[in-house]
């Protein structure tokens, strides 16, 4: 599906076709026009992003500019590199310093493009004690530089980040610039935070990037411009070296790369560019302020005032966790428990990120896995807002979706340990520890023929779990159930999904165990019945064959001859009864059919017993779904069901009260004018005596048929 590129996107795309037409001009006119386009675009970019007296190199691949800068640094530091080539590098090996938070694969790309071995790369770790854990450790970098100088190596280039690829943190560029000037190292800066240089207010850490030797900008994503090249701004005085390094070219086609960006800058203007970048920063600030008010959400932000990237994750301390340990933990079990908790939290955050991406597609969220924090969700509007058209309403919708998903996450975390204990204490069930599953847990039913030591495919177990999954889904509960193989195993398991409300775990586990046991027993009964029927058919065939032989012996050989047999049967018919066999499935035995032919009716065999329902029939209130805790006044009851239930109870109480003899006051019959007949008098007196009789001696009044 083509994205909504807008009018400014059409202008950028028009630049490519227009460049093809321009390339057909006269050489002299083409040279003048391309030079003007290149110089104007370079001047505008340097003024917008506060990079004075800089040159620009336009490239399609974002990392290509850094490779050209490394080549320029090699030619600048090694004077005989053009003549001697590798021999110069062999005597004094160059070193390129990269941050541990740099983009993955950047160092390998540079070595492949420059023809350098991988030992020429030096990875600088990030801070571990002071400062951000995503910033380069300056003190450790200085130690690495001194060690390389002592070994006879040449520190060549340092790549700093103004907004790391993961969380958008900025290195201490001012301190790194001082260190590079001290040891003669080329400083290159890249990152998404460089876009804020176009704003009126810029943080000091990002503003220091204007003093670096080179920087790489990506105006395409920032401004929502498709097919626009990236730009590398640099400062160098020797045009011959820049030509050798490939940063400048005399070919008009290379200069025409700037034409789409030249047209786009003309269309947007300075105010349009600043407005788009400012809008993206305001979106990140809006999300950050809203997430601060949400519980169980941790925000990883370096600068709360001007960070254009917001990284957050869900967290919840386990119930009963004490910050001060009361006992010494076991060394072997503590790391595994911490690792299991880390993986479980990562699974929940991965589920939350996927849900938010589906619910708010205009947010441009990204789910990423950090080395220290784990799985987090990143919101970087500078890279996505201009393309997706993200607005403030989308941010509010995103926060609302986060708040709506938090009860599901917290409830699931609270029920996990209870589910594990219930499954562990239930016979026939095995708890499967799968930290990558975001639901309540994973359980497997161990049937009688289950080989616990083997991890191979179990057809019988798979059949039982398939039937169990079907039965659980037919219960129409709020839980979701799935079936899949256990991690690193081929055996099937039942995966219990997220819980959005208080769930009765004991009922859930018992239902799983009893249902699986019923399915196993029914499958065994079917197998036994199949074997019994097969043997019964074989036995019936043998008996019928014997009966035919006996009939031949009784009738004689002459009756089997076609013509003679008909004559004999006409003179002396044979009174032979029809013999057959019926198979009683209940008793598993063969019976004769003589009774059926004599009485002209099939005999009623023994009625098979009803299959017992092993599921505990829990008394549920009207409207209550399965696996819900039955609390008085629970919200699980709907208003209609609650009222109807109360009315039924009132009717029963009223009817039972009407049958109480103490409350009966029978209407006495009026005296007959001519005197009361003796039968009626006796009847009336008996009724009165019965009403005055004590309750313990009173016979029970039978209930009407309607009240039963």
TrEMBL record:
Domain PDXDC1/PDXD2 second: 307-413
InterPro entries according to UniProt: GrpII_AminoAcid_Decarb, PDXDC1-like_2nd, PDXDC1-like_3rd, PyrdxlP-dep_de-COase, PyrdxlP-dep_Trfase, PyrdxlP-dep_Trfase_major
GO MF: carboxy-lyase activity; pyridoxal phosphate binding
Region feature Disordered, mapped onto this chain: 598-708
Annotated GO biological process: carboxylic acid metabolic process
Cofactor: pyridoxal 5'-phosphate
SUPFAM superfamilies, per database record: PLP-dependent transferases (SSF53383)
Domain PDXDC1-like third: 419-524
Keyword Lyase set for record: yes
Keywords: Decarboxylase, Lyase, Pyridoxal phosphate
Ranges annotated as biased composition (Basic and acidic residues): 645-654, 693-708
Pfam families named among the record's database cross-references: PDXDC1-like_cen, PDXDC1-like_cen2, Pyridoxal_deC
Family per record: Belongs to the group II decarboxylase family.
Name assigned to this protein: Pyridoxal-dependent decarboxylase domain-containing protein 1
Organism of derivation: Crocuta crocuta
Gene expressing this chain: Pdxdc1
């Amino acid at each position: 599906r083509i994205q909504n590129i807008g009018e400014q996107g059409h202008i950028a795309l028009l630049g490519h076709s227009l460049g093809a037409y321009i390339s057909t001009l006269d050489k002299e006119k083409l040279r003048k026009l391309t030079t003007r386009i290149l110089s104007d675009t370079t001047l505008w970019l340097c003024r917008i992003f506060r990079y004075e007296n800089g040159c620009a190199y336009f490239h399609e691949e974002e990392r290509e500019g850094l490779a050209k800068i490394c080549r320029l640094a090699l030619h600048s530091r090694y004077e005989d590199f053009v003549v001697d080539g590798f021999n110069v590098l062999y005597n004094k090996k160059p070193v390129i310093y990269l941050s541990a938070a740099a983009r993955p694969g950047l160092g390998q790309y540079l070595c492949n493009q420059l023809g350098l071995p991988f030992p020429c790369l030096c990875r600088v770790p990030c801070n571990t004690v002071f400062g951000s854990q995503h910033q380069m450790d300056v003190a450790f970098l200085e130690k690495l530089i001194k060690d390389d100088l002592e070994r006879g190596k040449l520190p060549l280039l340092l790549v700093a980040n103004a907004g790391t690829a993961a969380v958008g943190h900025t290195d201490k560029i001012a301190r790194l610039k001082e260190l590079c000037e001290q040891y003669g190292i080329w400083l290159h800066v890249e990152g998404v935070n460089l876009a804020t240089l176009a704003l009126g207010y810029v943080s000091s850490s990002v503003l220091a990037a204007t003093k670096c030797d080179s920087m790489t900008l990506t105006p395409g994503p920032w401004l929502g411009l498709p097919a626009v090249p990236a730009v590398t701004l640099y400062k160098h005085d020797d045009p011959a070296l820049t030509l050798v390094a490939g940063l400048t070219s005399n070919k008009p086609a290379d200069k025409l790369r700037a034409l789409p960006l030249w047209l786009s800058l003309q269309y947007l203007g300075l105010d349009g560019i600043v407005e788009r970048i400012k809008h993206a920063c305001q979106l990140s600030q809006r999300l950050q302020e809203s997430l601060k008010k949400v519980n169980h959400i941790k925000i990883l932000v370096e600068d709360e005032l001007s960070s254009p990237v917001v990284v957050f994750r869900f967290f919840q301390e386990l119930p009963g966790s004490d910050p001060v340990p009361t006992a010494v933990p076991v060394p072997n079990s503590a790391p595994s428990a911490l690792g299991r908790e880390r993986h479980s939290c990562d699974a929940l955050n991965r589920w939350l990120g996927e849900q938010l991406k589906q619910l708010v597609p205009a947010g441009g969220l990204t789910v990423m896995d950090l080395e220290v924090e784990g799985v987090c969700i990143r919101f970087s509007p500078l890279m996505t807002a201009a393309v997706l058209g993200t607005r403030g309403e989308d941010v509010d919708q995103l926060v609302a979706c986060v708040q709506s998903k938090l009860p599901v996450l917290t409830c699931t975390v609270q029920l996990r340990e209870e589910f594990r204990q219930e499954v562990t204490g239930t016979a026939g069930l095995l708890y499967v520890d799968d930290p990558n599953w975001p639901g309540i847990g994973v359980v497997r039913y161990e049937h009688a023929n289950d080989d616990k030591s083997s991890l191979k495919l179990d057809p019988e177990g798979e059949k039982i779990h398939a039937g169990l999954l079907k039965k659980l889904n037919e219960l129409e509960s709020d839980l979701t159930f799935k079936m899949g193989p256990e991690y690193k195993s081929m055996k099937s398991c039942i995966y219990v999904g997220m819980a959005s409300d208080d769930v009765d775990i004991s009922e859930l586990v018992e239902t799983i165990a009893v249902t699986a046991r019923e399915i196993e027993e029914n499958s065994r009964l079917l197998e036994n019945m199949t074997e019994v029927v097969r043997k019964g058919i074989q036995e019936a065939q043998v008996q019928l064959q014997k009966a035919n032989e006996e009939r031949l012996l009784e009738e004689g050989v002459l009756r089997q001859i076609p013509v003679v047999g008909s004559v004999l049967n006409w003179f002396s018919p044979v009174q032979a009864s029809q013999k057959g066999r019926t198979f009683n499935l209940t008793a598993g035995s063969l019976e004769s059919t003589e009774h059926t032919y004599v009485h002209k009716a099939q005999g009623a065999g023994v009625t098979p017993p009803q299959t017992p329902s092993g599921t505990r029939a829990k008394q549920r209130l009207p409207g209550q779904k399965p696996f819900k805790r039955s609390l008085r006044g629970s919200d699980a009851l709907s208003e209609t069901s609650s009222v109807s239930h109360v009315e039924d109870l009132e009717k029963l109480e009223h009817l039972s009260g009407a049958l109480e003899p103490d409350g009966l006051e029978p209407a006495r019959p009026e005296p007959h004018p001519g005197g009361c007949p003796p039968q009626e008098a006796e009847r009336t007196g008996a009724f009165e005596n019965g009403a005055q009789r004590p309750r313990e001696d009173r016979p029970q009044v039978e209930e009407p048929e309607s009240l039963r």
